[in-house]
Design a protein that fits this description.
The complex is a heterodimer of chains A (224) and B (398). Chain A has one domain: Beta Polymerase, domain 2 (2-Layer Sandwich), CATH 3.30.460. Chain A is globular, with a radius of gyration of 21 Å. Chain A has a 5-stranded mixed β-sheet with strand order 1-2-5-4-3. Chain A has a two-stranded parallel sheet with strand order 6-7. By secondary structure, chain A is of the alpha/beta class. Chain B is α+β, with helices and mostly antiparallel strands and 398 residues long. Chain B has a single domain, classed as Orthogonal Bundle (Cytochrome-c3 Hydrogenase, chain B). Chain B is 44% helix and 13% strand. Chain B is built from 15 helices and 10 strands. A 3-stranded antiparallel β-sheet of chain B has the order 1-4-5. In chain B, a hairpin with a 2-residue loop joins strand 4 and strand 5. In chain B, helix 4 runs parallel beside helix 6 and helix 4 runs antiparallel to helix 11. The two termini of chain B are 24 Å apart. The chains are: A alpha/beta (224), B alpha+beta (398). At the A-B interface, strand 3 and helix 4 of A face helix 1, helix 8, strand 8, strand 9 and strand 10 of B.
């Protein structure tokens, strides 16, 4: 991955992010699978076996001493809650095909993390790594950033990701007998299963209204 | 239980504790021998110092804490899942309730994220109103803290002062937005309404009252020898460790880290047009956290006064389509909220609602340092440390 090609492919990176990306590339080399831009920030997708090493590089070489968060992403398309034509508009309709976001993905599950520096302005890196279906293991970051402890427990209970080397993966938010991984896309929103969307009863055409807006833009008065 | 390679505060034996294993032993063990066993003490879920339902399982050796394990989740409302079932304008209603003391400040980063993705910029007057309301909610949050912290060390009076001043500020917020706690006033592309008549002079008066009562807190609490004895050198957070735990906001600045997203993050709102400074304290103890918040309250009041003087006129809303569909993309926006760094990682797939929202809330990371911070402290100091970290349960549990 040549440097000039990299900066051309990601024009939306802010100055600090270009710098951070170049230093990550020289430190991690081919462990970086892909990179992209998210409104000025650099998104770096690393190989799974380099997950912990990339955290170490970020902390020690790049000076990102601050752990913002670790989370997960499930790229499976959102299953439709309402049948088509039922009038249930309670849930935004998401695309039905599986697409991936910035810096791509190989499969359904991804780990997402963000580290920042408290000493340099706007100096932050977004890291991603793919977890193959059926082997949702990743190295724990606890030995690099002790604050990863709770974030990894959360990702473990919400997505079922297993963090090797984590001192005690146990439930954080949910009761210890809880089964299932609520933030996976195939886990239904139970409130909707128990009781249909209460807004449904209100859905009837307004008199004389062809377009049904939310009225938010009234103040501007220039919408169409 | 916690990471073992951290420097322990004081010389304490390392005991691995799994709270599930001794839940049935919650009744205090009385050892007949002189060598008493550790006692397990449950603090909470309902306790005045926990601002909600936080439970602490504390293992004590006499009066000292051997290990502490915060148990959270009593208020988990699943907002990250719910955002996948709501449209963007609906989500502001949800995120108002994350940190309910400064609801308006919660809305700003999310609305900002949606605006980034839609390539909309709110007009200058809307930006000013947002900044004013954000700073007002910061003042409302902090004056409550300034009073309540006194309460935790046994001083009743400051609590009343704190609630009194908070009421002034909440009245201002209510006059603009119609809601005391949950304004829900931000719109994608701007802000709902303009200021009511006479509000600006009213606000000036309240800011001067806040500045005056900050001097009162200075005399009454900061200068009080009992308060100093109870808070100085208690609950020290080292800089590097605090940052690695993700502790942010005033808690980190009280450890000497000169880092404020209003100044050091990517530009948001109008902070770069104001003349203000970031306050830090080198000590990192409970006292430093109180002192930093006191200075920041003053600074916020001064910022509001400045903004009232230089507020531009103009429209309040940018041109926004009637049905809000956000183009596909990913963005992370974080802002300096009263409690620390609040951020939203929004993944959009071009629908009317986000595909995934990762909510980074400040208190979650601020509290995650507790197992380390509470080791070795005395029981009465648990309360002052909890109070000085200043967390909101809705902000931990989301």
């Amino acid at each position: 991955m040549a440097d000039e090609a990299a900066t051309e492919a990601v024009p939306a990176l802010r100055e600090q992010a270009v710098d951070a990306l170049a230093r990550l590339q020289s430190e991690l080399g081919d462990a970086i699978v892909e990179h992209g831009a998210a409104f000025g920030d650099v998104v770096v997708r690393v190989r799974r076996d380099a997950w912990r090493r990339s955290a170490q590089v970020c902390k020690e070489q790049l000076g990102c001493d601050y752990l913002s968060f670790i989370g997960g992403i499930d790229w499976m398309p959102t299953p439709a809650v309402a049948e088509e034509g039922s009038g249930d508009t309670s849930t935004p309709a998401q695309p039905k095909e599986q697409t991936y976001g910035t810096a791509g993905s190989d499969g359904r599950y991804q780990l997402l993390a963000l580290v920042e520096s408290t000493r340099r302005k706007s100096w932050r890196v977004i890291l991603k790594t793919d977890l193959p279906d059926g082997d949702l293991h990743a190295e724990s970051w606890v030995s690099v950033y002790p604050g990863a402890d709770w974030h990894e427990r959360e990702a473990w209970e919400m997505y079922g990701f297993v963090f090797d080397g984590h001192p005690s993966l146990r439930h954080l938010y949910l009761p210890s007998e809880f089964e299932g991984h609520p933030l996976r896309k195939d886990y239904p929103l139970l409130a909707r299963e128990v009781k249909p969307w209460p807004g449904l009863v209100d859905v009837e055409p307004m008199p004389g209204a062809a377009t049904d807006g939310d009225g938010d833009a009234e103040g501007a008065g220039e919408t169409e | 239980m916690t990471t073992t390679d951290l420097p322990p505060p004081g010389e304490l034996p390392e005991i691995a504790v799994d709270p599930a294993a001794f839940r049935h032993l919650a009744d205090a063990q009385v050892n007949v021998e002189l060598d008493t066993g550790d006692m397990v003490l449950n603090i909470g879920p309902q306790h005045p110092a926990t601002h909600g339902t936080l439970r602490l399982v504390v293992r004590l050796d006499g009066e000292r804490v051997v290990s502490a394990d915060p148990i959270i989740g009593y208020m988990h409302r699943g907002y990250e899942k719910l955002t996948e079932f709501r449209t963007y304008p609906q989500i502001t209603t949800l995120i108002n309730r994350i940190d309910w003391l400064s609801s308006f400040a919660n809305e700003v980063p999310f609305i900002d994220a949606a605006e980034h993705l839609m390539a909309i910029e709110a007009p200058p007057r809307a930006q000013y109103l947002r900044t004013i309301l954000t700073e007002l909610s910061r003042i409302a949050t902090f004056v409550l803290f300034l009073g309540e912290m006194g309460l935790q060390v046994g001083a009743i009076t400051p609590a009343f002062y704190g609630f009194r001043d908070r009421e002034y500020v909440l009245n201002l917020i209510e006059a603009v937005t119609g809601g005391r706690f949950h304004p829900n006033f931000n719109r994608i592309g701007g802000i709902k309404d303009d200021l009511p008549w006479g509000w600006i002079s009213e606000c000036r008066g309240v800011m001067n009252k806040v500045l005056a009562s900050c001097d009162e807190f200075d005399d009454l609490v900061v200068g009080n020898p009992i308060f100093q004895k109870r808070t100085r050198s208690i609950g020290i957070i080292p800089q590097e460790l605090g940052a690695a735990y993700g502790v942010s906001g005033s808690n980190l600045r009280a450890s000497g880290v000169d880092w404020d997203l209003r100044r050091d993050g990517p530009k948001y709102l109008v902070y770069d047009e104001l003349d203000w400074q970031v306050w830090t304290h080198p000590d990192g103890d409970s006292f430093a956290r109180y002192w930093v918040r006191l200075q920041e309250t003053r600074e916020s009041a001064r910022m509001v006064l400045q903004m009232l003087d230089q507020m531009p006129s103009g429209p309040l809303m940018a041109k926004v389509p009637r049905i809000i569909k956000v183009p596909a993309g990913e963005v992370f926006v974080n802002t300096e909220n009263p409690l620390g760094e609040m951020g939203y990682y929004v993944i959009s797939k071009g629908a009317t609602g986000p595909f995934r929202t990762k909510i980074r809330s400040a208190s979650f990371s601020n509290v995650s340092i507790l197992p380390w911070l509470l080791r070795g402290v005395y029981v009465p100091d648990i309360v002052t440390i909890l109070a000085s970290l200043y967390f909101i349960l809705g902000d931990i549990d989301r």
